[in-house]
Amino acid sequence: MDCSIPGVIGVVAACLSASTFVPQVYKTWKTKSAKNVSIQMFIISTITTLLWITYGIGTNKPPIYVANIVGFILSVTQINLKIKYDRANKR
Description:
There is one protein chain. The protein has four helices and no strands. The chain has helices at 5-18, 22-31, 39-58, 62-90. The model has no long low-confidence stretch (mean pLDDT 91). Helix 1 runs parallel beside helix 4. By secondary structure, the protein is mainly α. The termini are far apart.
């Protein structure tokens, strides 16, 4: 692990980026509602994280690809919750 100041800043930034969607996913799951969630934003986020994962793997930068794998999982989870709860609430 890179213990230089830029390396530590990169790891901290990666951890914060990875946790960005945790509050939204948790709230959606807890309330069983995604009424005000933009699915388009999460689709864009999913594509973006896939690109960052590819870049991180291609440049051998684990903080980049690991954080974005977590972000990708959270984005896909939110998209699935949005679809599930929007369908359930239409019934």
